[in-house]
């Protein structure tokens, strides 16, 4: 049992190290106000407080920011195993508007993997209200450089 717990802790440590390196070099998410809330093997949670800069002409959070929030959670989750991984594709369904002042959380989880490909689902919520559902398709690219500052 202790060896399994050590393995779990090693996996958590690796996921956090990768996330820290990615976050340090992700100017897009950082400048948009996206925060990393939690990360672990095959999962991640990101957050965004919707401010004036995030709203569109209808006074609701712009869909591009919702996509960015979900995509950031997806990126942290699919890179959490320590192998450089990129999005092969993604789509999002907007279910409800997120208003100015909303505190959004995007929770990503690995759903399926086969070889170098993976499928991740991300749910974006404002409290208990689901705002959007995102599905990302990942592709591991072991020949790609790791984020600056990360060494396996």
Tell me about this structure.
By secondary structure, this protein is of the alpha+beta class. It has a single domain (2-140), classed as Roll (Thiol Ester Dehydrase, Chain A). Helix content is 30%, strand content 38%. The protein has a 6-stranded antiparallel β-sheet. A hairpin with a 2-residue loop joins strand 4 (103-114) and strand 5. The longest helix is centred in the first third of the chain and has 23 residues, at 2-24. The two termini are 25 Å apart.
Count of individual domains:
1
Superfamily at the CATH H level?
Hotdog Thioesterase
CATH fold assignment: Thiol Ester Dehydrase, Chain A
The outline comes out as: globular
- Structural category: alpha+beta
Q: Quickly give the CATH architecture.
A: Roll
Task: List how many beta strands DSSP finds.
Answer: 6
Features:
152 residues, alpha+beta, Thiol Ester Dehydrase, Chain A
Brief overview:
30% of the residues lie in helices and 38% in strands.
List the helices and strands and how they pair.
Blueprint lengths: L1 H23 L2 H6 L2 E6 L2 E7 L13 H16 L6 E10 L8 E12 L2 E10 L2 E12 L12
Antiparallel strand pairs: 1-2, 2-4, 3-6, 4-5, 5-6
């Amino acid at each position: 049992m202790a060896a399994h717990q050590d393995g779990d802790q090693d996996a958590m440590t690796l996921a956090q190290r990768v996330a820290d390196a990615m976050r340090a070099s992700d100017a897009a998410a950082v400048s948009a106000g996206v925060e990393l809330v939690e990360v672990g093997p095959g999962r991640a949670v990101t957050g965004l407080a919707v401010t004036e800069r995030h709203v569109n002409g209808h006074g609701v959070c712009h869909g591009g920011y919702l996509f960015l929030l979900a995509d950031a959670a997806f990126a942290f989750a699919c890179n959490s195993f320590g192998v450089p991984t990129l999005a092969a594709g993604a789509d999002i369904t907007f279910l409800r508007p997120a208003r100015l002042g909303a505190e959004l959380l995007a929770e990503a989880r690995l759903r399926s993997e086969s070889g170098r490909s993976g499928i991740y689902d991300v749910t974006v919520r404002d409290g208990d209200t689901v705002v959007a559902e995102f599905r990302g398709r990942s592709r591991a690219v072991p020949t790609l450089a790791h984020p600056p500052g990360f060494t396996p």
